[in-house]
């Protein structure tokens, strides 16, 4: 057996167990070992069999016999049974669904069984159902005393694992213990180098695995968790920093445009830029001059004006000529997560750039457009994909806006110098890379320059990734370790803060009346339905869609019969989504009920109210982002945060929404107060819950970052650490697979 062995090759699994493990994201032996307990139960009483009573939770030491496997007659469930004898009495043991347990233990072995005592309905006989069982060498001393009074067993702490229907914590415990005993760990190199373990007093991989799954004492468990948290952050850092170093070895386009040049462009806007916008622009222009490819993340709340920063810096690019060429411009690619957004940004860019003699293209899966049209220099025109792509390849299109369609191999630029990714969190890492690296390969060699690179391409484009997702600093240091960070931490002046109200169940109808007043005054409302967590994305979409439709029907029937209610969800086709959005924009829909998975990122200035249902299911930063949808207007906006839970903790947490100055504050708050397992890091950020815990600890994150940098300083290619390279390539495959 190896660590990457599929779990079903090691354990015989029923379909329901297989499904449950899949849900728990356990597919290999290694996944199982890294499926950590979330907590440890209390120590359990050791009893003698004679003193056991129905309903007891207890541990018993004794010899086991009469082991056999069979199938429960009523349901064809595979089961195993045996009889435990401790000299004071005998008790039957039954395991459902875990027949292999009977094979792991030999008749006559001395064991410790721990679990719940049940009673046979007919005979009244007691039995242990699904106890944890393990071989022991001797009966601990204090359990002898339990013949007189009950002793508490200190064998080890009782791990409690995240379960899923079909797989119990107990099953997981036994499965992990079985794996640990096989010696498979001996084959595995510790991913953390020895000297680093020693420096930070971290337990070795093997010790830590034993400690985390069955610690003798609480402090062992804590040390083990710390180690795994460090390991994860360290490995992410190592991978990102390695990437960054590689990136910085590439050549890029040197763009020498200064502030005065830019001023010709910025002065055309009907507003003056915020200090934060100006700072961001200067930073990017500085990067452009260096000749190395920029890799920068622009993080700013919804409405902080990221588009203006993107457009201004794009201006510097499209007013630059390719090297050694007296015609044409360098090119810009602008990628959006949805067709709606791509179209909106295409229109925006036309309005920003129509005074320049450049062409702008739009490419989505449903069609292509080009500005300016030959017939009318003030309008865009539809054109065939082939025609548009030819223009892109010839360098005639200076700015190409699009969706994922931009990544396709058939899209080839002549001089792609600048890639902008909007709402970057909606894209996978692979997609980002495909756009930057893939397109770099298609770039024509720069004028006169011989391509002496061993690689196929001459120049890498600069990259600007934009996101409105506020995340804590320690998290961005980790997952964006390959990017430089610019914060847009200032909103344009004159925006009225959104009035946010936390609405407990009893205040619901009063709030509906308030909303009715807004609707009556001609305003529009978003209603966001609760988040539903479901590992299977197809199922999640279906469930979300159902709940949005139900809520829309309810609002129409019971609350706002006089208004038009529309629904938006992920099961709609792109064209349908667009129709709904158009209708909302045109005021044909008064209330738009939408799932949280569909980002309604478009500007509808007349929408001044947002209702968020099931708010307790969201992180604060996420709620903040959702409420940003009504920040588009100069009118007073309202956010009503509905919660079904009247709990004090929930209300208190939500109250932070009313006080926080920006999303980053809320992100830090989320991190600080989240319970383990909430705000699931694995899904959203690709980091585990244990690493999320670690991100509360800036010192640890900095140490991991420092060590990763030091390692790469000494061994840039990590040639001396082959197991790390294997690890990264395996992880790459896995991420790709998802
Ligand atoms: P986001 O950062 O969410 O992408 P946008 O770029 O869409 O924000 O900008 C939101 C709105 O704010 C737009 O209507 C834009 O014209 C406006 N805006 C951007 N910068 C400023 C500014 N400095 N002053 C006033 N309004 C601005
Ligand atoms: Mg935006």
From the structure above, extract its key features.
Rossmann fold, nine-stranded mixed sheet, 39% helix, globular, alpha/beta, six-stranded parallel sheet, OB fold (Dihydrolipoamide Acetyltransferase, E2P), binds adenosine-5'-diphosphate, binds magnesium ion
Explain this structure:
Helix content is 39%, strand content 19%. With 738 residues, it is of the alpha/beta class. Strands 14-13-12-15-11-16-17-10-18 form a nine-stranded mixed sheet, sandwiched between helices. The protein has a six-stranded parallel sheet with strand order 19-24-23-20-22-21, with helices on both faces. It has a five-stranded mixed barrel with strand order 3-4-5-7-6. The two termini are 24 Å apart. Residues 142-152, 447-457 and 676-680 have low confidence and may be disordered. The structure holds adenosine-5'-diphosphate and magnesium ion. Residues 271, 273-274, 277, 300, 302-308, 468, 492 line the site of adenosine-5'-diphosphate (ADP).
- How much is the radius of gyration in Å? 30 Å
Low-confidence stretches: 142-152, 447-457, 676-680
Structural class: alpha/beta
Number of beta strands: 24
- Measured as a percent range, the helix fraction is 25-40%
Which CATH architecture of the domain at 259-289 and 305-467 would you pick?
3-Layer(aba) Sandwich
Number of helices: 25
Largest sheet: 9 strands, mixed
Topology diagram in text:
Elements (H helix, E strand, L loop, with lengths): L14 H9 L5 H5 L5 E3 L3 E2 L10 E16 L4 E9 L4 E7 L3 H5 L5 E10 L6 E10 L5 H5 L5 E2 L5 E3 L8 H13 L12 H6 L5 H9 L4 H30 L11 H8 L8 H15 L5 E6 L5 H13 L12 E5 L3 H15 L5 E6 L2 E5 L8 E4 L1 H9 L3 E6 L13 E6 L7 H14 L19 E6 L5 H7 L4 E5 L10 E5 L4 H13 L3 E6 L7 H23 L5 E4 L5 H12 L5 E5 L11 E6 L7 H8 L10 E5 L5 H12 L3 H11 L7 H5 L3 H6 L3 H17 L7 H16 L1
Parallel strand pairs: 2-3, 5-7, 10-17, 10-18, 11-15, 11-16, 12-15, 16-17, 19-24, 20-22, 20-23, 21-22, 23-24
Antiparallel strand pairs: 1-9, 2-8, 3-4, 3-6, 4-5, 6-7, 12-13, 13-14
Helix pairs in contact: 7-8, 8-24, 9-11, 10-11, 19-21
This protein binds adenosine-5'-diphosphate and magnesium ion.
Magnesium ion binds next to helix 11.
InterPro entries: DEAD/DEAH_box_helicase_dom, Helicase_ATP-bd, Helicase_C-like, NA-bd_OB-fold, P-loop_NTPase, RecG/Mfd, RecG_dom3_C, RecG_wedge
GO molecular function: ATP binding; DNA binding; DNA helicase activity; hydrolase activity
Organism: Candidatus Taylorbacteria bacterium RIFCSPHIGHO2_02_49_25
């Amino acid at each position: 057996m190896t660590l990457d062995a599929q779990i079903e090759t090691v354990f015989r699994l029923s379909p329901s167990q297989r499904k449950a493990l899949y849900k728990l994201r356990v597919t290999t032996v290694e996944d199982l070992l890294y499926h950590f307990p979330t907590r440890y139960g209390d120590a359990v009483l050791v009893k003698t069999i004679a003193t056991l009573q129905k309903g007891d939770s207890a541990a018993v030491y004794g010899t086991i016999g009469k082991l056999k496997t069979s199938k429960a007659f009523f349901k064809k469930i595979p089961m195993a049974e045996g009889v435990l004898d401790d000299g004071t009495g005998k008790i039957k043991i039954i395991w459902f669904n875990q027949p292999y347990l009977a094979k792991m233990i030999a008749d006559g072995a001395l064991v410790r069984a721990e679990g719940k005592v049940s009673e046979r309905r007919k005979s009244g006989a007691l039995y242990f159902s699904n106890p944890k069982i393990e071989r022991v060498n001797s009966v601990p001393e204090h359990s002898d005393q339990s013949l007189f009074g009950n002793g508490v067993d200190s064998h080890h702490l009782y791990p409690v694992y995240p379960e899923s229907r079909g797989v119990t914590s107990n099953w997981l415990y036994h499965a992990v213990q079985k794996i640990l005993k096989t010696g498979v760990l001996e084959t595995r190199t510790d991913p953390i180098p020895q000297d680093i373990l020693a420096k930070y007093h971290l337990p070795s991989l093997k010790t830590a695995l034993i400690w985390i799954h069955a610690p003798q004492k609480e402090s062992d468990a804590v040390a083990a968790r710390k180690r795994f948290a460090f390991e994860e952050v360290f490995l992410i850092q190592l991978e990102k920093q390695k990437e960054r170093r590689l990136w910085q070895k590439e050549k890029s386009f040197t763009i020498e445009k200064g502030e005065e040049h830019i001023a010709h462009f910025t002065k055309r806007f009907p507003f003056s830029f915020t200090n934060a916008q100006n700072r961001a622009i200067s930073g990017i222009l500085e990067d452009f001059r260096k000749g190395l490819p920029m890799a920068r993340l622009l993080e700013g709340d919804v409405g902080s004006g990221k588009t203006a920063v993107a457009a201004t810096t794009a201006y510097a690019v499209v007013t630059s000529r390719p090297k050694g060429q007296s015609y044409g411009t360098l090119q810009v690619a602008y990628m959006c997560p949805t067709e709606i957004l791509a179209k909106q940004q295409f229109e925006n860019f036309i309005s920003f750039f129509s005074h320049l003699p450049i062409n702008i293209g739009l490419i989505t899966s449903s069609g292509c457009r080009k500005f300016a049209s030959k017939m009318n220099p003030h309008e865009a025109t539809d054109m065939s994909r082939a025609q548009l792509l030819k223009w892109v390849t010839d360098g005639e299109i200076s700015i190409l806006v699009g969706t994922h369609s931009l990544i396709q191999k058939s899209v080839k630029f002549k001089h792609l110098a600048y890639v902008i990714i909007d709402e970057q969190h909606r894209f996978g890492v692979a997609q980002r890379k495909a756009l930057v690296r893939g397109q770099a390969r298609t770039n024509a060699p720069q004028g006169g320059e011989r391509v002496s690179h061993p690689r196929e391409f001459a120049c890498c484009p600069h990259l600007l990734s934009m996101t409105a997702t506020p995340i804590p600093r320690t998290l961005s240091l980790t997952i964006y370790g390959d990017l430089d960070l610019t914060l847009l931490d200032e909103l344009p002046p004159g925006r009225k803060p959104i009035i946010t109200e936390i609405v407990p169940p009893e205040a619901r109808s009063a709030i509906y009346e308030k909303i009715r007043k807004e609707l009556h005054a001609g305003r529009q409302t978003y209603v966001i339905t609760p988040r539903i967590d479901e590992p299977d994305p197809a199922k999640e979409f279906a469930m979300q869609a159902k709940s949005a439709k139900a809520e829309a029907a309810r609002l129409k029937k019971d609350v706002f019969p006089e208004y038009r209610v529309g629904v938006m969800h992920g099961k709609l086709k792109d064209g349908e989504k667009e129709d709904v959005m158009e209708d909302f924009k045109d005021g044909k829909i008064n209330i738009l009920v939408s799932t949280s998975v569909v980002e309604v990122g478009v500007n509808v200035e007349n929408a001044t109210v947002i209702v968020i249902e099931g708010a307790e299911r969201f992180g604060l930063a996420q709620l903040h982002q959702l409420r940003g949808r009504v920040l588009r207007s100069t009118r007073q906006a309202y956010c009503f945060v509905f919660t079904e839970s009247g709990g004090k903790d929930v209300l208190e947490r939500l109250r932070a929404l009313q006080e926080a100055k920006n999303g980053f504050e809320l992100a830090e708050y989320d991190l600080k107060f989240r319970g383990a397992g909430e705000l699931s890091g694995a899904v959203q950020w690709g980091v585990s819950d244990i690493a999320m815990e670690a991100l509360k600890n800036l010192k640890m994150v900095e140490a991991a970052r420092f060590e990763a940098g030091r390692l790469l300083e000494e061994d840039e290619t990590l040639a001396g650490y082959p197991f790390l390279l294997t690890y990264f390539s395996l992880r790459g495959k896995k991420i790709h697979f998802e």
